[in-house]
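Worked example

This section walks through a single chain of length 408. The input is the sequence exactly as stored; nothing has been trimmed or padded.
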Amino acid sequence: MANRLPLFNPPPRLLMGPGPINADPRVLRAMSVPLLGQYDPDFRQLMRDSQELYRQVFETRNRATVLVDGTARAGIEAILVSLVCPGDVVLVPVFGRFGNLLCEIASRCGADIRRVEATWGTVFSLETIEAAIREHRPRLVAVCQGDTSTTMCQPLEGLGELCRTYGAISYVDATASIGGNPLPVDAWKLDAVSVGLQKCLGGPAGISPVTLSDAVVEQIENRKHLESGLQSEGYQPGAGPRIASNYFDLAMIVGYWEHGLNHHTEATTMLYAAYECARILLEEGLQAAHARHRLHCQALQAGLVAMGLRLFGDRAHQMQNVTGVYVPAEVDGEAVRRTLLSDFGIEIGTSFGPLAGVIWRIGTMGYNAQRTPVLQTLACLAATLRIHGMKLPSDGVAEAILVYSQLK
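Given that input, the structure is written out below as tokens.
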């Protein structure tokens, strides 16, 4: 007889790391409704409505605003593999792990990568990026807005205009920042942006909203090569080289969304989730959501400082939804994280590369950007540090409450 495995019953967790976070119950509820066929008229209307919702989330009028099935990395890879031809010069300002990821993916597309580096915990000035563009003359400039590995938020205002001045395409990975930090795509003249649900949008990972300017669509269409089973009589492929990935071929993905091209089967429940994430965000209002994330981040930081902990990085360019804090010398950082998870059911993050074991990363984003999760995290972190032998001047709770009380 085959082994019978028990029903998986996940333990209760408060996910206060850099993402994923606890999904909004309304999103989980939306994912539980019945499936529809991908060409059902009601489902096609849901697709059109989702496009319109995400145009508002991105603050854009881009027609080609679609969703790519897969985690946030699917959106990144779809944009890069659809835009980058072998030999193209791609400039990547790297200020954390996820700038390295952009280099990794673009290099696999055959790009000639030109990196500029900033010390982790800092960001780039527009002047530094312009100097690099002048030196390298890239076809594409790819940058993260918020890099959770360092908790820094790269200023983007002026970047799109700068890229257009030098004839380059601008691409922004805003996975970790969208919904918690301003990102007016059209006002900042950004050409391509991809995001995910699992951070400030308050959903699960599994689908990636992207938005593409008309100029980007034109370049992608020039590389359009339909798979043989979809070609009709008189079909003419694009003049450019075929996009190397079928699944991440944005020419066909946009065709699926706009014209019903039978490119793939839509991840139905993930689209339900994405729709609800955007609906909830827009119901709250973008500016209100940004202010909420900023408030809870400030409350968390006030509590951490009151404990005697030291915050990481350039505070003027801090993401509004993730905080880096140095691991105190008196404790083992990983042991603290294990105790916090096993005894209190709270997850916080470590970091990568030069910051591995140096900082913890604590998120206040999406559904968890609320007073109760922040206060609970502070109280339990303080208790955990005391368990591990630290003496603290405060548990930080009263100081965080003071931040909240100042709004009344």
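What to look for: Residues 286-405 form a domain with the Aspartate Aminotransferase, domain 1 fold (CATH 3.90.1150.10).
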